[in-house]
Amino acid sequence: MWRNCVRFYVALWRQRCAPIVEVSGAAVRPRRVCTTPQLQLSAGAGSARWPHPGGLGGMLHRTGVRMTPQRLPRQAKAGPPSPRGLYDSVFNARWSHVVEFPKGEMKKKAVRMHLKAGEPTQLWEFKVQGMTFELDDAADQFCAPRPRLMILSSEQGWPYVWMGAGSTNPDFFINCEVERVWRIVQGDLTGAFDTEDFKGLMLSRRVLLGTSGVGKSMAAGSYLLYKLLHYDDKKLQVVVYCFWEELAYVFDKTTRTVAEYIGRKDIAIVMGGLARRGMTGYIIYDVFAESPSPHFSPSAAWGMIVLSSPEVSKYQGWEDQVGAMRIIMNCPEKLDVKAMCAWEMRDKPAEEQAQYWTMVKKHMNEIGPIPRYIFTKDKYKDRVVALDIALQLVGASDVKQYFTQGNEKLWLSENPTHELVKIVRAVEDGVETFYNKPICRRLGGETLDSV
C-alpha cells in the first residue's frame, strides 16, 4: 500500500518537473502574484527547477516535505451578466408628475389631481436646518397648482425587480419626503452643511430610517441611484446598490456599464479595487429582511447610506462605528396616496377611479399609509392578519417599557413592534431623531385597549 502512495507522489512530482537546464540567473515572477522576482535554479541532471515557474503551491521538495502553497491575490468573481441596456434604462428613466388643485371651501373642500408628462417645472423648496433640510414653509410651493408627486419609469425596472423580490413594477413614486432625502445626500456631496459644531460625525455616511418598507415601497434607494448616476462624473465615478452583503450592482459611470457581484468577500474586493484605482463612489446599502448591519466600510473618499427599519440591530453597530448621521423619512400623506391612485388608474373611467380611491382610503385607515399593502385586496388582507398577531403580542409590560401611553402623544421608542407604528421625524439641535406613533388610529386605540 505504501509503495502505491510513493509511486503516486513521485508521478505527481515528475509532472511538475521542468526540462533539464543549467543554472540560470533569469528572474521569474509567478503569474498573478505581485512579489519580488526570484532566481530560478537547476542543479544537475534529473533535477527540477526551484522554485517551480508556477509558484510553490502543492509542490514536493526533494526531501519529501510538502511546501506551503503560495497565496494568490483574490479576485472578485462577477455574477451573471446584467441585462443589456440596464444602465441606460435607469439613466434615461421617463418622468411624469402629478399636481394638485384645491377646490371648494371649508367642509366641501377637495383636491383634484392632474397628471402631466415630463419633469415638473416647479419642485419643492427646502431650507437648511442644522445638518439637514426641511420644507420651506414660506415658499410659493403651497400655492396651486402645486407639486404633489413625481413618477420615474424604467423599461427594465428598479433594484427590487432585478433581484427578484416579487416586484415587477417599472415605476416608483417620489413625494417631498423622498426628494428631501436626495437633497440631504446632495448637500453632503457639495458641502452644503456647516460641520463646525458636529465634529466626529461623517457627512459622507448616512443612515436612512423609516417605517418598515422604506427601501421598497417608498423607493428612496431607487431615487438615490437615479440621481447619483446623474451627478457630476468628475466627482463621482461609481454607484453601488447593495442588498445587504450578498448582492451588489456596480454602476461604472465612466463606461456606462453594470456588473453584478455576489457574496460579501467579492463585493468588498471589487469596491476596494475601484478605490485603489482612484475612483470615487457612493454605496446604497439596503438592509433587507433579516440581514445584519454592514460589516464593511468603503474608502474614506466614498459616500455610503444605509436604508433600514428602526430596529437597532440592523444599523446601530455600523452607525456608531463610522459616526454616521441619520435621515428620518416620514410616511406618505393622504394626498400623496391619492395622487398615487390617480397614477395607477390613469387609463380607467372616472367611476372606477373613484371606487379605487374609496377602497385604498379604507385600507389606509385600517392598516396605515404603507403603499406596499394598501393598493390590492390580497396584500391588505395579509397585512391585517400580521397586524392582529402583532397586536396580540404587545402586553402591558411592553407598553410600559417601550411606549408612552396616550392617543395623541407620540410613542418614544428605539425598538418597537414595527408593524404597529410609523416613523415621525423630529429635529433636535440641528440633528434628526425619530419618534413612533400608532400607524393608524384604529391600531392606536386597540393597542391601548388591549392593555
UniProtKB/TrEMBL annotation:
<dbReference type="InterPro" id="IPR046835">
    <property type="entry name" value="RHS_N"/>
</dbReference>
<dbReference type="InterPro" id="IPR052980">
    <property type="entry name" value="Crinkler_effector"/>
</dbReference>
<dbReference type="Pfam" id="PF20445">
    <property type="entry name" value="RHS_N"/>
</dbReference>
<protein>
    <submittedName>
        <fullName>Retrotransposon hot spot (RHS) protein</fullName>
    </submittedName>
</protein>
<dbReference type="InterPro" id="IPR046836">
    <property type="entry name" value="RHS_C"/>
</dbReference>
<dbReference type="InterPro" id="IPR006518">
    <property type="entry name" value="Trypano_RHS"/>
</dbReference>
<feature type="domain" description="Retrotransposon hot spot protein N-terminal">
    <location>
        <begin position="87"/>
        <end position="194"/>
    </location>
</feature>
<feature type="domain" description="Retrotransposon hot spot protein,C-terminal">
    <location>
        <begin position="207"/>
        <end position="449"/>
    </location>
</feature>
<dbReference type="Pfam" id="PF07999">
    <property type="entry name" value="RHSP"/>
</dbReference>
